Automatic annotation (TrEMBL):
Gene Ontology molecular function, alphabetical: ATP binding; ATP hydrolysis activity
Alphabetical keyword list: ATP-binding, Nucleotide-binding
Annotated signal peptide: none
Region called Disordered, residue ranges: 25-50
Residue span, AAA+ ATPase domain: 211-394
Keyword Ion transport set for record: no
Pfam families named in the record: AAA
Organism: Phytophthora nicotianae
InterPro entries from the UniProt entry: AAA+_ATPase (IPR003593), ATPase_AAA_core (IPR003959), ATPase_AAA_CS (IPR003960), Mitochondrial_chaperone_BCS1 (IPR050747), P-loop_NTPase (IPR027417)
Official protein name in the record: AAA+ ATPase domain-containing protein
């Protein structure tokens, strides 16, 4: 059709020659029917063509239906794509222009409704398949962070009682932070643990030993907890999904967040589906995120509350109590009722960490600046494979970091300068401070000079 629209759309990648032919046909004034033909250019120009069209190689030229015209998309079924713009008010002021896009179907066939529903269903399934294919082909790793808003766990728009589930925003992860530029005491032990876990060797090869990994990172601020998380994700080739307990209201929401493995991302129509082996779950600053993780003052049960004074209240039979509870359940909003009775608690958190539901291949990392505040049940063996203290840097690790970022080996005099400055200072140095010095100065001597000034202040 001469009125057809042509756009570059992201779709399954075709051959480079076909892409070039489609692009040439789309921009030429030739008949539209030549769009799918092969280019007649010789193979001598293929290298130049590959470079020129490399940026759009993942795109295809696709025909879209003409605007505001009825077209027959199936025998007896017609479709119109129309755009309705608001009328001009004549007022001379800056306004935001909006338009409404309508997709209309019509048919006079006896089974018109079923036919149209089937077309829409096929189109939506095809769209979902394309989105899933794009996710599979996307080799990037992402950082998923919980959004302030929630979405519903059902596709029924009329279901007002749908339980809200966690929604995410995502950002691309880089490959810069690795174990090569991390310097801490138990680095080799952590690498060995990760190798055993990834290869199912060592204790993870023993039948019956849980194939899941739980780490607790603790230490002062700036000692590399977040950097270690990035390095672990890069080493295992996984995405990072943050779980903020402060944004989760119920035990069911927490259960869904860690076991559903479907992540509703803002801006995407379909949730991203992943496996446990694709993700590192992170609960950062867990002692600040929620009070449920704090150590309990005593082991008293939640049921040991002050007895209620019933001296002035009429005695209710069991039948009366049952009727009363049924009436309340009917009158109250089901969503609020469920959220109040399933409020997030320590028991719910322990259940997702070490409950009856299997989660083979899962990695969970918790971080805290104050491990002494945590409930002992949260960090007992079985729930946490390794507790790792990330503390201040020793002189050897400072030397290793300076050599790495300056790409130079310290000579004897430089090592002596570093050691003397380190010994004279009463201050402890964090990896963040030393990394900042390396970023501010260009060579070893300049970094050592900055370190000597920093040490002399204390």
């Amino acid at each position: 059709s001469k009125n057809a629209q042509y756009e570059l759309l992201e779709k399954t990648k075709k051959s480079k020659k076909t892409t070039k032919a489609l692009l040439d046909a789309a921009v030429s004034e030739s008949n539209c029917s030549t769009t799918g033909s092969e280019s007649s250019d010789g193979d001598d120009d293929d290298d130049d063509d590959d470079e020129y069209y490399g940026e759009v190689n993942r795109l295809n030229v696709e025909a879209l239906p003409p605007l505001n015209e009825w077209i027959e998309i199936e025998s007896g079924v017609y479709f119109k794509h129309e755009t309705v713009a608001p009328g001009n008010t004549g007022e001379k002021k800056v306004t935001i222009k909006e338009s409404t896009v309508n997709f209309r179907f019509k048919s006079s066939l006896p089974d018109a409704s079923k036919r149209i529903d089937a077309i829409i269903d096929r189109a939506f399934k095809n769209y979902q398949a394309i989105e899933r294919r794009k996710h599979v082909e996307d080799k990037s790793r992402y950082f998923y962070i919980q959004a302030d808003t929630a979405t519903a766990n059902t596709g029924d728009d009329n279901n007002n009682n749908a339980t809200p589930v966690v929604a995410y925003k995502r950002y691309a992860l880089g490959e810069e932070k690795t174990f090569e530029n991390l310097f801490f005491e138990e680095k080799e032990q952590v690498l060995q643990l990760l190798d055993n876990f990834e290869n199912r060797s060592g204790k993870f090869a023993v039948k019956g030993f849980p194939y899941k990994l739980g780490l607790l990172l603790h230490g002062p601020p700036g000692t590399g907890k977040t950097s270690l998380i990035k390095a672990i994700a890069q080493y295992t080739k996984r995405h990072v999904v943050t779980i903020s307990l402060g944004k989760i209201k119920t035990n069911q929401q927490l259960l869904d967040a860690l076991f559903d493995m479907k992540f509703a991302v803002q801006g995407l129509d379909s949730p991203i589906e992943m496996d446990f082996e694709d993700v590192v779950f992170v609960m950062e600053d867990i002692d600040c995120a929620s009070s449920i993780v704090n150590a309990r003052a005593d082991e008293a049960s939640d049921f040991s509350s002050k007895p209620e004074d019933t001296s002035d209240k009429p005695v209710q039979s069991e039948d009366d109590k049952l009727v009363t509870s049924m009436i309340k359940a009917c009158l109250e909003d089901e969503k609020k009722y469920n959220m109040r009775n399933d409020k997030l608690n320590l028991s719910g958190l322990l259940n997702v960490l070490d409950g009856v539901i299997d989660c083979p291949g899962r990695i969970i990392i918790m971080t805290t600046n104050h491990p002494e505040k945590l409930d002992p049940a949260l960090v007992r063996p079985g729930r946490v494979n390794k507790k790792l203290l990330l503390s201040y840097m020793g002189c050897t690790h400072i030397q290793q970091m300076v050599e790495y970022y300056c790409v130079a080996k310290l000579d004897e005099s430089q090592v002596r300068r570093l050691s003397e400055a380190f010994d004279m200072s009463s201050q402890a140095f964090t990896p963040a401070e030393i990394e900042e010095l390396c970023a501010e100065h260009d060579d070893v001597d300049a970094v050592l000079g900055g370190f000597e000034k920093l040490a002399a202040k204390h």
